[in-house]
Design a protein that fits this description.
Elements lengths: L1 H17 L25 E5 L6 E4 L8 E7 L8 E9 L3 H11 E6 L4 H11 L8 E3 L5 E4 L5 E4 L12 E5 L12 E3 L11 H16 L11 H8 L2 H5 L5 H10 L1
Parallel strand pairs: 1-5, 1-9, 5-6, 9-10
Antiparallel strand pairs: 2-4, 3-4, 7-8
Helix pairs in contact: 2-4
The structure holds magnesium ion.
Magnesium ion (MG) binds next to loops.
Pfam families: NIF
Protein name: FCP1 homology domain-containing protein
GO molecular function: phosphatase activity
Length: about 260
């Protein structure tokens, strides 16, 4: 049951999320990260993480890798570039998953990884940009220092320039979407296991959300995908059990 494994993922991550600084104290992007949506059918926006969500990559061979990607690196100056080998495994059913998602959602690939590295992998997954409408990288994340002095990159969904009630994210790290916990579907991390079938559970959830959103009473303004995700995972109140952070923020502001 995917929900049980997700709950375990949640428990493993819960302390890390609590170390994030308050959202109000983090740098904000001045312009939306995405251009204005041009899709006329008003698809919801689905943000997908790359590493350990869609693929597993390593600089050393690991059991189950299926491909080697050569990445040439240079410092941008006249020093000679050199190439490194990246061992890659695609999560089982990745292409079927992307096929389904791209039909029903505007897909934004959002990785905290380096752009050159990510593009070398995305070139293999989506060479003709069939699946990903937009790509965002480490430089689009919010750099934060946690209360344990760790340096992390967080994906600020508010900065996308999309309606948050029609935006969701699938990521193996709940910390990565730690400022929008009720917008996420946390997926267990993928490390190259050939028998992984987590996409099926996620597809069931996406399918249920799409069916719900197409009900007449849910059309347009009435629909907020965060309500559905809250009902399924309830992440925000598990991480911050006493008071939702928005409420806590208001209390602090009005005092
Ligand atoms: Mg990841």
């Amino acid at each position: 049951m995917i929900k049980n494994r997700i709950v375990q993922t949640l428990i493993d991550n819960i302390e890390a999320v609590r170390t994030l600084p308050p959202y109000e104290h983090t740098p904000k992007s001045s312009n939306p990260l995405l251009p204005i949506s041009t899709n006329s059918i008003k698809k919801m926006t689905l943000v997908l993480d790359l590493d350990e969500t869609l693929v597993h990559c390593s600089l050393t061979p690991f059991p189950g890798y299926t491909e080697i990607v050569e990445l040439s690196t240079s410092n941008g100056d006249s020093s000679p570039s050199h190439s490194i080998k990246i061992y890659v495994s695609y999560r089982p059913y990745l292409f079927e998953f992307l096929e389904y998602c791209s039909q029903h959602f505007e897909i934004v690939l959002f990785t905290a990884g380096d752009q050159q590295y990510a593009d070398s992998i995305l070139m293999r997954i989506d060479p003709q940009n069939r699946y990903f409408t937009h790509r965002l990288y480490r430089q689009h994340c919010v750099p934060v220092t946690t209360s344990t002095q760790a340096q992390l990159y967080v994906k600020d969904l508010s900065a996308l320039g999309r309606n948050l009630s029609h935006t969701l994210i699938i990521d193996n790290s709940i910390t990565a979407f730690g400022f929008h916990l009720d917008s996420g579907i946390p997926i267990p991390s993928f490390y190259g296991q050939a028998n992984d079938s987590e996409f099926f559970g996620v597809l069931n959830i996406l399918d249920a959300i799409l069916r719900f959103s197409s009900l007449p009473e849910c059309r347009e303004a009435a629909f907020d995908v965060r309500n559905n995700l809250k009902e399924i995972f309830n992440i925000e109140s598990q991480v911050f059990p006493k008071l939702p952070r928005e409420v806590a923020g208001q209390v602090i502001q009005t005092e």
